[in-house]
Amino acid sequence: MEMMTVAAPRPSSRVRARSPLTAESLLSRGDLEAGSADAAAITRMMEREREESRRHARHLLDLAPFWIDHEDPDLADDREERSLAIAIALRTTTAAAASRIREAHRAFTEMPRTFERLSAGDMPKDWHRRMLRAVGDLTPFQREEVDRRIAAWDLASIPADRFRDELRQVIAWCERQEPRQCPEHSRDVTVESSGRDDGVASLRITGPIPEILSLARRLDAASRAVQTQQRHALEQGAPIPFDLDGDVARDGTTMSQAALRYAIIHRTLLDTAGVEVPAPRHRVNVVIPVLTLMGLDDTPATYDGITPLPAAMSRALAETEPVWHRVFTDPLTGRFLELPAQRYRPSPEMVEHLRLTTPRCAVPGCTKGTTDGAENDHIEEFDHEHPERGGPTSLDNLHRLHWGHHDFKTARRIDPVREPDGSTTWTVGSPPLVRTTVPPRLDLATPRIAAAMTESWEHYRWLSMMEEMERCGEAARIMQEWGPVDLEIEDPEEFDHRARWDIDPPF
């Protein structure tokens, strides 16, 4: 058998449309009558699309000056400061803000020719963003080559599928000239949410194909061996191996291959070759609203204050736990009582309360959780020499920060101030780049729970009023005047309004 290699074709330097795309040609292609409502709408949409490109170019132009070289480790605080300022201004996360700054720098500095086409409205915004994503792994020299080639295309007239095909060819031609990343460098394990808040997540294991296939085969072999032993034990009436929850003995059938593969990964101990793994610093909190726990409401619970869990799943989890922790808060403020100012470290109860009310880093735009890698921070600095002078260790003066942002605050790159109403005003940069105020998260009650409790109370008052009217004979008199009232159909508020205007209140 002969092996053949074919060199990747050099991408075309001339990418042209058959005819220019203008307002007139657009109407002709769509067989629309000039002056009609459809023709006017199509023309407006075409112009809006090009204006959107020009607007996006201006947006990138404003963002580009916030770029700071990522190669210099001494500028890490400057990069974080600017990312935080942009995150607050754009109402996004710090990670997204850093990505947009990088995108703006790449567009304006590294690929100026296509940026000019974007500014002129010739290159659609989505095309430009697709191009920037595609060149992310290329070298600066390759990006310059891609920029030069694409800028020469007939971007104002070629169709979208032609642009995508030509872009793929250019990127493939550039990538073949550079050695690809070593597969061993791609090893990673990440947690991915389903994106639907349905209580489901995935553990993604990435690595070289031989290693991943070997892991899958070992997992399959282990699950088949356990399943075989379970089947033999059922046939012989012997103790059932790996029957972790007693389901096999109860149902009289072996666990499925999928269930066994999951259980082997999830329920067995991880071997760290003698390295001691420290115990978790905090318990994992699954916060379940009391009405949900009682089955009177289906408001989702939260896993560590961040990840929603369906009501049924949270009740099932509660059934298996031997110990529950009740969280009591002040009915007005939802806070614990303050500690004396002379104490620097907050109590364990205060830390748990902070973790419940601040499940993510308190810095605006930060998405890092506060279970691990986070620290308790005094908003007004604690005075170690004269504790009575300020910076008390109280919930009014505490929040949880990711350790990186805690260092950032210590370096005075950010300055939080707790306002009298419990909100926090954040100033980023010195001199200030941006200032924003974040409202407090006072308690653990959700608006849905509050609404359910209010509705239940109003319904109780309505029933009480009806019972009192029956005892006083008012209900009988109303029925004689108005006829029978079907309380399942009649609006209680309307009936109450008529009753209050037409009769004297019975109480």
UniProtKB/TrEMBL annotation:
Keyword Nucleotide-binding: no
CDD domains named in the record: HNHc (cd00085)
Domain DUF222: from-to ranges: 75-355
InterPro entries, sorted: DUF222, HNH_nuc
Transferase among keywords: no
Organism superkingdom: Bacteria
One protein family per Pfam: DUF222
Keywords, ordered alphabetically: Endonuclease, Hydrolase, Nuclease
Gene Ontology MF terms in the entry: endonuclease activity
Protein name in UniProt: HNH endonuclease
